Amino acid sequence: MIDTHAHLYDEQFSADIAEIISRARANGVEKVYLPNCDSTTIPAMMALTEQYPGYCIPMIGIHPCYVKESYEAELKIMQEWLDKASFAAIGEIGLDYYWDQTFVAAQKDAFHRQIDWALERALPIVIHSRNATQDCIDIVREKQNGQLKGIFHCFGDDLNAAEQIIDLGFKLGIGGVVTFKNSTLPEVLRAVDLEHLVLETDAPYLAPVPYRGKRNESSYIPLIAQKIADIKEVPLSVVAERTTKTAEALFS
């Protein structure tokens, strides 16, 4: 299985990252993709990818919550890194209207420009959309020229949103939220083909049941996969195989 989204460079993992990686490997997680947040997270992310080459794989981009007054300078730093290192995707990028709407115009500008980088370099994008999914969908639709691909990370919206995302050729990133008792995701996933899903943890956030509220980690991917298997009424091995194939094709 593949964890398509985990912040393993986060300081919450600094004391025991070797054990985190070891547990993930022992639980069948063969690769972890690392989304970036801003210029301050790049050094730790790149250090981790050097420590675990081919296992921890970096992306580059500005998370919408980090788009502030200095976002132009941040974008310049991202572009410099794109020119000097190899990245699997542009991410995580997108829109977040949950915490603060002061910089919505700047978030949209940054989102548009980073999508353009992805198109120029034939890279997928990994989208963060909190309280902003329809706006993210509309921007992707505007930019979709048949070449744009990626993941709507931490998908938790309704079937209408899921169908729009799938119609655009994008995948749904399914994480620990699917295991929560009050989640409406199971209902949505029953109506969605398995080929449109990829697995993710968003570690250290959003740990699945029975670890909800605790630090999340990549070794919990099988708990998410098992929940999807239960929803789809297929063996765990089928979910593992299909989601891995989808992730590999996307990031190839």
Ranges where pLDDT stays below 50 over 5 or more residues in a row are none
Residues in helix, %: 40-55%
* Main sheet overview: 5 strands, parallel
Counted up, domains total 1
Radius of gyration, in Å, reads: 17 Å
Commentary on this structure:
The protein is of the alpha/beta class and 252 residues long. It has one domain: Alpha-Beta Barrel (TIM Barrel). It has nine helices and eight strands. It has helices at 17-26, 42-51, 71-84, 104-121, 133-143, 159-167, 185-190, 221-232, 236-251; strands at residues 2-3, 31-34, 56-58, 90-96, 125-130, 150-152, 171-174, 197-199. It has a five-stranded parallel sheet with strand order 4-5-6-7-8. Strands 1-2-3 form a three-stranded parallel sheet. Helix 8 (221-232) packs across helix 9. It is globular. The protein starts with a strand and ends with a helix. The relative contact order is 0.15. The mean pLDDT is 97.
Please sum up the structure shown:
The chain is α/β, with parallel strands linked by helices. It is built from 9 helices and 8 strands. Strand 7 (171-174), helix 7 and strand 8 form a beta-alpha-beta unit.
What attributes does this structure have?
9 helices; TIM Barrel; 3-stranded parallel sheet
Sequence-ordered SSE layout with sheet pairings:
Blueprint: E1 2-3, H1 17-26, E2 31-34, H2 42-51, E3 56-58, H3 71-84, E4 90-96, H4 104-121, E5 125-130, H5 133-143, E6 150-152, H6 159-167, E7 171-174, H7 185-190, E8 197-199, H8 221-232, H9 236-251
Parallel strand pairs: 1-2, 2-3, 4-5, 5-6, 6-7, 7-8
